[in-house]
């Protein structure tokens, strides 16, 4: 058995630093950071509500939200502002928040399960599978009437293929799973390239536009599906955070501590993949969120996943909402959000490399 002292020692000096448990009392500093992040998120939501090509004053926004949420005489509401805020902006804002949470927490799970600081929700072929499904739906609508459903099914299918290819003698080694994910992603990427090659110009533009990512068509129906799944997977992951900490130590240590690494890895990957695949099918490919936000959370909260998971969820929601607000307000023609997240992601990775260096990546 590993003693608490040894466990703490390995936790504090783990070379990969992907969410290993650090015993100790809850730090008031972390509580303050959580409150601060939540406050920033509320401010970002209010800013996103009033920002846009059509101006809505804060007073009108509060009046509309109060009437819609608490009940009131809707005949008094300004019609155009109400339609823009309630039917267009608010669903989009909420989808950005919950999608950011899903990508960030999924990235945290993948980095801990694979003990790989460069893992993200797309490591097992989710993005490539979803892109292939979306391309099928766009090019063959008679056979695949729902682009989002086809993208979701193909995203899950790519992960299932990765798992199946990596499974040997009843076990799925983490390294083999990552390699099989790369193989499956390459396969689906080739299929997407083939479809783009034979696609007419109009469909080619639509496929390319989808792959750049965006929340243009967010609706309350999308939220009715996305929000419960994201909240359920987030709650379950947070409740099992200590198991994720143990998995970060390695399979041998996990078994020594009484944790079945294969079973829990499958559970965590399933939950992360489900939420990430659903969000990708709704928004298209949005890079960097699942890679950056877990590292940002560790910089603020340390390596304990019981704090990293909610921290990365808040950071992801804030980052995604900020990028989406910029994407739709910087220019008259909306910029795909994937471009904005990529521009923001590159400097962050450079900063992480220069400030953390070997402590994070070796």
UniProtKB/TrEMBL annotation:
The chain crosses the membrane at residues 33-56, 93-110, 122-143, 149-166, 178-199, 219-242, 263-288, 334-353. It comes from the Bacteria. It is a multi-pass membrane protein. GO terms for biological process: siderophore-iron import into cell. Keywords: Cell membrane, Membrane, Transmembrane, Transmembrane helix, Transport. The keyword Nucleotide-binding does not apply. It holds the Pfam family FecCD. InterPro entries: ABC_BtuC-like, ABC_transptr_permease_BtuC. Belongs to the binding-protein-dependent transport system permease family. FecCD subfamily. This is Iron ABC transporter permease.
